[in-house]
Amino acid sequence: MRADRVFAYGAAAGLLGDLLLGDPRRGHPVAAFGRAAGAVERVLWQDHRGWGALHTAVCAGGAVSLAALAATSVRTSRTASVALTATATWAVVGGTSLGREARAVGEALAAGDLEAARERLPHLCGRDPQALDADGIARAVVESVAENTSDAVVGALVWGAVAGVPGLVGFRAVNTLDAMVGHKSPKYRRYGWASARLDDVAGWPGSRLTAVLATVAGSDLRGAVRAWRSDAAKHPSPNAGPVEASFAGALGVRLGGRLSYGGRVEHRPVLNGDGRAVQVDDIERAVRLSQRVGGLALGLCVAGRLLTTRLLNGRLSAKGRTS
Hints:
single chain; globular; mainly alpha; 5% strand; 73% helix; two-stranded antiparallel sheet
């Protein structure tokens, strides 16, 4: 079976598996990678960019190498190749768990249980929950849904379409390393620099596709385009900016403002300043938009891979006839 069809069938099956099963409670492959990366960090950590770059190369390179070895070992079997792609897709995407956690926080807020919402929020993002009121928690959830639609779904599908199982695994490895060491704390400002920069590069295509699809699939196309064009560049993250701005415009809400991470207060630029403040009901709207974006991304990535293969085969055939 051609590689493009392996990806098409495998990615569709993997996304269906995520929809039906979500993430496993125990033994998640991404968690296992995180433990291995943590062990490497304990050996290599130095307050130096070079040692951080080595950490990134060892962890991300090791994950991609193992994925490539696995893909090579099953390439003679159509069934095994599709099964491996499906398993890798299911392991690296997290759209169902993202929606489940967002809705759990939304349900707590709707019930007026602020403490329960604060307790659940760390499952979704790294904000300081005690520093947030109900409105701040709702805004944090919508922002997290937007950003993780790119990181946990679309970006993985894009790299899977480009490079198969190694692309799927490599993207999740890079994204996980960024979450672990890529933040600007005193410990990781230099050591995590390489992971953060690599994540910016790897996340670029998925974030732009997410922004485009959120614009198309949302309820306010003009508002999403306007917010993306005017506000995305204001965000400190080159990839989160377009995604959060387009979600803000598509939902008609205002994102950004005061944030608190690990006791450190940040003041982010406001995205879609003409929008209204986020309300609890907007969490469900954001989750549904995220699901539509994920479905569209699968269709586009599969179609793109099939079309690219057809065009390349056509050029090779034409070259063979003229040689």
